[in-house]
């Protein structure tokens, strides 16, 4: 599962789980210095979280995992740094990555909602130059971890935005995940998962049911 991956992934997945347990999209991110592999900052999606904490984004759609990791930076920008995130960055987070001069984005799961976005950035000299290198999604032996990373935000979408474009696109792209989420929503067991403390236990619980 997470063991065997680089340390930033553990941080990102722990943030993602804490985000999901608290009723958010369930996405986590870490900013890393590639020179020594140290974690510079981390953040989680807090869009549905109404209590405010100083220095953190919460309670609205600016409160994405990457944005919170950026907000926690103790330096002017993220020049040369890498971002590890459990879900492919959205239009806001990749734009901010370019503004902050992030060098490389690593993502565990793809987001079909933003497919083709890179074509857009190629149309302007600044964004063409600033677009970070990208690695992802996980495949092969880590494909089920990618499914878990997609499961968390997708379950939020299917629960709270049924019938919307994001729901329809996710269902078309991930029919097996959609079936699993529908089952967990129908019998209410999705809320039992929220009582699980650690991402490792959550992964062990869901692992046999995740598509490969
Ligand atoms: Zn985002």
TrEMBL record:
It comes from the Bacteria. It holds the Pfam family dCMP_cyt_deam_1. One of its GO terms (molecular function) is catalytic activity. InterPro entries: CMP_dCMP_dom (IPR002125), Cytidine_deaminase-like (IPR016193). Signal peptide: none annotated. Gene3D superfamilies: Cytidine Deaminase, domain 2. CDD domains: nucleoside_deaminase (cd01285). Residues 3-129 form the CMP/dCMP-type deaminase domain. This is tRNA(Arg) A34 adenosine deaminase TadA.
């Amino acid at each position: 599962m997470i063991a065997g991956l680089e340390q930033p992934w553990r941080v990102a997945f722990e943030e993602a789980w804490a985000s999901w347990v608290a009723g958010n999209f369930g996405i986590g991110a870490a900013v890393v210095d590639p020179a020594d592999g140290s974690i510079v900052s981390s953040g989680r999606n807090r869009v549905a979280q109404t209590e405010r904490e100083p220095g953190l984004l919460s309670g609205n759609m600016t409160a994405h995992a990457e944005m919170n990791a950026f907000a926690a930076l103790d330096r002017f920008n993220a020049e040369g740094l890498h971002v590890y995130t459990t879900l492919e960055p959205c239009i806001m987070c990749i734009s901010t990555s370019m503004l902050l001069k992030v060098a490389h984005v690593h993502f565990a799961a793809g987001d079909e909602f933003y497919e083709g976005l890179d074509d857009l950035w190629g149309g302007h000299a600044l964004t063409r130059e600033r677009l970070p290198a990208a690695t992802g999604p996980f495949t092969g032996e880590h494909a089920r971890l990618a499914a878990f990373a997609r499961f968390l935000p997708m379950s939020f979408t299917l629960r709270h935005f049924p019938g919307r474009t994001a729901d329809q696109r996710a269902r078309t792209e991930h029919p097996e995940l959609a079936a699993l989420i529908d089952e967990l929503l129908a019998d209410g067991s999705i809320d039992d998962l929220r009582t699980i403390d650690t991402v490792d236990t959550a992964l062990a619980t869901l692992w046999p049911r995740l598509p490969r």
